[in-house]
Amino acid sequence: MLEHYVAGAVFQVWVFVVLFLIMLPAMFGLSLGVTGVYIQVLVKILEWATVRIQRGRMEQPRIIERAGGSMEEEIGELRNSFALSDAFYFYKKGLESIVDDQVTQRFSSEELASWNLLTRTNQNFRYISLRLTIIWVLGVFVRYCILFPLRITLAIIGLSWLVIGTTLVGFLPENSVKTWLSELVHLTCYRICARGLSATIRYYNKENKPQKGGICVANHTTPIDVVILANDGCYAMVGQIHGGLMGVIQRSMVRSCPHVWFERSEMKDRHAVTSRLRAHVAAKTKLPILIFPEGTCINNTSVMMFKKGSFEIGGTIYPVAIKYDPRFGDAFWNSGKYNMVSYLLRMMTSWAIVVNVWYLPPMTLQDGEDAAHFASRVKSAIAHQGGLLDLDW
């Protein structure tokens, strides 16, 4: 009897927290300040852990340094007579150059200055002291036994409401009421999903927010970029039609909002894609298109070359710079290493998502400027604002 009473009380508390402390404030774009306090506590803990780790490094050095010396000095040490084994020296140097290549480094997780108490960074650090080990164990319990179930619950609620809400709105006739309800449903769902990731988002220069009939372009670190941007406004998504759960979500979304989904065969036809996007932009009453011109996820340190197709459509470009704080979790999606489910599980068991978003002044194609140079100019502006490395590749 006592067990049933305790279970019922726990369930009631769980429902109260999810509905009244998280979902309702999220639906109205409000914050009770709980996430802010949580982030401040995390910062204090990570600062303490950094000091403890540095002290442990001094007591037990763990750094393995690469042997110094220039290539000329090392070549001079080789024997005067050639031997087949001498080729291994150049083989080693070639591999080191490949590993240290600037482009290759952008597709691996960003290196941190110190451990953030997540096992992905350096598992050995947690054994430096007993207190640090206890903090790490408590962190595992909080992330996997409290935050993870809560985040899964919110994600299921958010996605379910997105499918149900957009499907119901889709039955309404085309008018201003349908447009308003569609934007309300999208905003509500994305805000619930963001709360499910303990996301703390800071938006700057809101006077430059993308407007209807425009094109929003941003650097791309993770699929969650869409959730981050859609928390502050609605966008028309562009992408390929998928099957399974993703396909169900896409079909329900397009019923209430003019998203631009392409069949696989259409994605290969550049002119067909461009013409559909131009038709969308020409209708000044439609939501701004959200495009990530890099075409792939980059590891939150750089901005790689923008594909010029997005800049051949015409219209006004609204650049947006996105920068994640890596101390609280690795937002980068390495699609070659993790599938979508594995990646989302990693994100839901991280500390939090802390991100800064800058809206840049709108930009247009200048006289005598082609699409490639326009894309490069927009890319440089985003990299400069976000404190990211501007790559030419």
UniProtKB/TrEMBL annotation:
GO BP of this protein: phospholipid biosynthetic process; triglyceride biosynthetic process
Cellular compartment(s): Endoplasmic reticulum membrane
UniProt entry tagged with the keyword Transcription: no
GO cellular-component term (any): endoplasmic reticulum membrane
InterPro entries per UniProt: LPCAT1-like (IPR045252), Plipid/glycerol_acylTrfase (IPR002123)
Signal peptide: none
Gene Ontology MF: a single term: glycerol-3-phosphate O-acyltransferase activity
Statement: the UniProt record of this protein carries the keyword Transmembrane helix: yes
Transmembrane intervals: 12-39, 128-146, 152-172, 343-360
Phospholipid/glycerol acyltransferase domain sequence ranges: 214-325
Entries under PANTHER family matching the protein: GLYCEROL-3-PHOSPHATE ACYLTRANSFERASE 3, PHOSPHOLIPID ACYLTRANSFERASE
Name under which the protein is recorded: Phospholipid/glycerol acyltransferase domain-containing protein
